[in-house]
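Final report, Chapter 2: Outcomes

The project's central promise was a pipeline that accepts a single protein chain and returns its three-dimensional structure in a standardized token representation, suitable for archiving and comparison. That pipeline is now operational. To close this chapter, we reproduce one record exactly as it appears in the project archive, with the input sequence first and the structure output second.
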Amino acid sequence: MTTFGTRTNRSLTYVQMASLAVGAVFLLVGVLGFIPGIVTDYDSLTWAGHHTGAELLGLFQVSVLHNIIHLIFGAAGLAAARTANTSRLFLLAGGVIYLALWLYGLVIDKTADANFVPVNTADDWLHFGLGLGMVLLGAVLPRVATGTTRGPIGGTGLP
């Protein structure tokens, strides 16, 4: 039986497992963003801004700020996994944030100061996939776990 926490001995719902998994991936990416070799041109890593030449796996432009954001999202995902309701909220809200970041990346000039996180084209499409995936997980998994198609967040509507 998979359990979470020490105060209760209850099974995790699918949405809680998704929150844990997404949070863990964000934490991993945040940590990897500080490791030379995994980050190409590590010596050009900057605090923020589009001037950084550092790229995670040689694809995704990163900065110290970008890595910290990943770490914060990761910690939020792990913390949210304590309940099904907060897991669903994390996935839905986080997904919307990443979809907004995708749109932002599409409309800004990548060489302008507005690109302060920074993002490149690979980041943009990764943000789209993350956002869509998180929204889908947050919308579908609570219903799969409870066997409902209607009802309140994490609730038990009619099967």
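Archive annotation: Helices lie at 14-32, 64-80, 84-107, 121-146.
This record, like all others produced under the grant, will remain available to the consortium after the project formally closes.
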